[in-house]
Amino acid sequence: MSQTAVPTTDATLLIDGTWRSAGNVFDVVDPATLEVIGQAADAGPEEALEAIAAADRAFRTWRTSAAEDRAGHLRAAAVRIRERQDELADLLSRENGKPLAEARGEVLASARMLDWAAEEGRRANGRVTPPSANGPGLVLKVPVGPVLAIAPWNFPASMLVRKLGLALAAGAVIIAKPAEQTPLIATALVRILQETGLPAGVLQQITTSRPAETVGALLADRRLRKISFTGSTEVGLGLVRATGTHLRRISLEMGGHSPAIVFADADLEAAATGVAAAKFANAGQSCTAINRLYVHRDVHDEFLALLLDKAAALTVGRGTAPGTTIGPLIDEAGLAKVEAHVQDAVSRGAKAVVGGHRCTPDDPLLQGAFFEPTVLTGVDDSMLISSEETFGPVLPVYVFDTDDEAIEQANSTEYGLAAYVYAAALSRVWQAIDGLDFGIIGMNEPAPVRPELPFGGMKNSGQDREGGSEGIEAYLETKSVAIRL
Ligand code: NAP
Prior knowledge:
By secondary structure, the protein is α/β, with parallel strands linked by helices. It has 13 helices and 22 strands.
């Protein structure tokens, strides 16, 4: 299972078209081995302010650049990402811990998102209104201005690239702020984009170990016109509260607490495969990961047996090791939360029918925060896991009797990101699609994320959408022109 890590260092910031050091660096750790695998440049408020000044300058010309040329940069970067997919997937797997196959999937999804953004940028049309008594009107779609893109560690490639692609396609300029745990894959991807020949200041990156201070300098600067944030609800709502005197657009992709419903007429084998995938991918650290599973009483026992087979077939290990299907959690704090949820549930009467503990492999290179794939039965709404995002490989199973009850239970959360439904009858399928208060629904589909579909949540899971035709809107302002002839 062990494999020696190759040190990877890219301790540079991209500011005003130049890669440069920040003076200080912070370590990047392989979450499987706890070895330091590289350093990242540690920017502070000073560098952030240099970046916003450069962005403001660059925006003056980028905003009027040909949409076709912008698309060319994005398409070229997508080609390069596909060419370098092995190396990028390896880096992503080592930095984040996810299995290589998942890392490759994320890298390729990033390339597809750039292709989608390139196409959408060429269709960001305004419109002409019918004449009023005085004359016609125009509705112009104009780029929003300098954008700050804040990305999380759990999908450090695709979450960042989606923002970069759509913003650049729209004619906006962008400062990337990757997560502290995963700056290296972000830097590799920003390098690829920059090497397509983007003008200075159009794309910049600041990595930092002091996010509040460094981002705070940007929040206080009125030249920053937009924030696109993906991360926890706590930090996202903090950014909203920190708006201060400069009101600006803010898109939020935040936490989730996704339900899955297995109705009585579902294809149980397909449902078990799908539920296991949507729960255990990325070691359960996906914003769209299933956090509550509702199974109809009539099929509960049969379904549970199938599900346990799927859980038993998972292999915990280092992401880069052949055969691994579940990597480590990102850090000890993540594992402590998972453990707390399991202990709380068990203390209130739940049963871990599989798993339930942290893994303690003998291998000295597997010292990270590994947790067994876990299925809990006998859960109820009094347990922490029923309302808080677990962000780990733990699946609580609830039983329901009527379809209405399942939908009502599924909706009983402050979050509204993703929901999954396994059913066959068209009327039942439609009742679920119509009744679930979630931005994304996987209908017999465990992977409901596609460039063509808007991605985002309702309620405390966020606002605005990324992807689909809606995605580019987040980087456009609307200007109305009333013409008197
Ligand atoms: P996080 O702690 O909120 O961090 C997200 C980003 O915000 C990181 O870049 C982080 O920088 C930065 N940040 C932290 N404190 C900040 C502050 N005071 N001001 C400005 N930026 C700050 O979330 P995470 O732990 O990385 O990611 C997991 C969460 O993201 C989960 O809740 C998950 O559901 C959510 N998520 C949502 C989506 C979605 O599309 N809805 C997608 C993926 C993940 P540092 O790394 O330096 O702390």
